Structure formats: structure tokens, C-alpha cells
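User: Before I run my own analysis I want an independent prediction to cross-check against. Here's the chain; please return only the C-alpha cells and, at the end, one sentence I can use as a sanity check.
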Amino acid sequence: MYYSITFEANPGQDEIQCLYDGISAHARHQKGIRPLDFFAYFIRDKNNNILGGCNGNTLYGCLYIDSLWVADSLRGQGYGTKLIHAAEQYGLEHACTFAAVNTMDWEALGFYKKLGFEIEFERRGFIQDSIFYFLRKSLISDSNTPEPKALTPNIISATLADYPTIQNMARFYVYEMSRTCGLDSMDWACPDDGLYESFDFKSYFEDSTRKAFLIKAGVELAGFCLLNKAGTAEKTVWNMGEFFILARFQRKGFGSRAAQQIFSSHPGQWEVSIIPENQPALKFWRNIVGVVTNGNYSEEIKNVDYDHNQPERYILTFNLSR
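Assistant: C-alpha cells:
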């Protein structure tokens, strides 16, 4: 069979994506690592014109910032810093432990240093004696520097005395769920008295096959987790019944770390189910399960018998051993 090598000066995005897809498939085959995730943040004016932005990808635990640009008219107003912070937050949510960026000596070296990036190595030999710098920044604290207590999940087994506390937090859980699932049924509607109500979770304190946990940041309440064994398959050992993080601790990587702690302390066959309309949760669990299993999990849509309004669920299945 004959193959040809062709040259394209300005290849299209579809052609480039074909290369990325091939690299991702190879990584999944060799190491069980999940595909790359690409992202971009843009600064737009009222006419939707782009005046700046940054883009990159999550590369096997690294947040790689590929490009950063801010129009001259907006420089010196903090937009570059806001873009980098947004990208770093994205990295935390995708379980990245460090960020990497490249820059020439005459571009933005000082800017990145001010944001905490450190030179990892440099490359010389470019025209006009330019120097190409490779910089790195940790997104989590190293082993010698404890993380701030507010960002360190503390998983505590809940007792019957904690039942009212979890039930009260569940009001906010229902409110959060109503953002994406609110049109499924009146179950997500706000009651006439203005207080959201949740399902009664008392069985998690009375049934020995179920577990309830408080999630704290230091000594502060940050959420809860409920585990049961009611999966869609008989071999299921643990099913993520409910998982909730209060808004104050969301979008900081806190929920990801809490979930990973829960998984690591409960080996066995797992299931996580997600309502299809709850796309943020689906993205969250795909990321976390992908990390703890190195991409070795299955996903399918199944019908459940406990929700007549929306019986479909995404079911993530995986096995964790000590």
C-alpha cells in the first residue's frame, strides 16, 4: 500500500485534532491515561470582539498554558493575571498538580515570575540572542508545606447526632441540583415556605450497609458524602449515593480531593451515577474517576427504577484495590 507525506502551510483544526486523537489513544493504551482536555478563556467586548485570552490543555496531570495575549488597550489593568488565575482554577478542577508555561526573555518572563512561576530550564540559540524559558508552578502545596486548612478536606464518619446537620445542608444540595435538573419535575421546585426540602437521609444512619460522612475544611463544615451498596450491578460494593460541597469551597479543587480521599479509603467495585441533565457533575466525576483509575473505567447510560421523571443515568463503573 502506498502512503504519501504531504505539506500543509496552514493546516485546519480537524487535521490537527486527528493528531491529538492519535496521541490520546496511544496514551490510553499504554498507560490507561485519559485524553487531553483543551480549554480557552477569552476577553470580549460588548460586540463579542476578542481583546485577549489564554488557551492550553491538561496534559497528564499538568496544566499547560499554551498562549496568553491581552490587547494593548487593556494591558496594565490586571486582565492577564485574571486569565492565568482562571486557567489555574481549571487545572485544579481537572486534578492537575502543577502548571507549565513557556516564554521568550523579551515576552512575559517577569509577569509569570510575579505570579509564582519559577524557571525550570532555559534554551538558547535563537535569533538575536533570544532565550526561551520553561517555567513551572505548583498548584498544590509540597510535602514540606502544609496546605491551608481551609483547602484540606477532613472526612469524618457521621453519627446519628449529625443527621440533622446533613439534612439541613441537603437543602442547599437540592437548590444546587435545581440549577440543572429543575425542569425534570416539581420535586426540584421551591416550596411555598421558601425552604427547599431534600429526601430523608436517615437510613444512612440506621442501615449498617450504608455510610455517612461529614466533609470539613479544618473545623468548618464544607459538605457531606453518603455511600450505599445499591448499584445497578450485583457485584457493586460501593455506590456514591450523594456527594455535596458547599459553595464556599467549590471550584477550588477541594471537592476533587475530598472525593479522592473517599475512594482511596473504600476499595472494591464502585458505581457513580449522574443525572444526564447535570452536566457539571458528569464532568466532575469523569475527571475524578479518570484520575483515580488512570482512565480504567466504563461508562454507559442505564435506566433506574427509582426516578420515574428521569429514569436515565450515566453510570461510571470501576474497581479500586488497596
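Sanity check: The domain at 13-138 is CATH 3.40.630.30 (Aminopeptidase).
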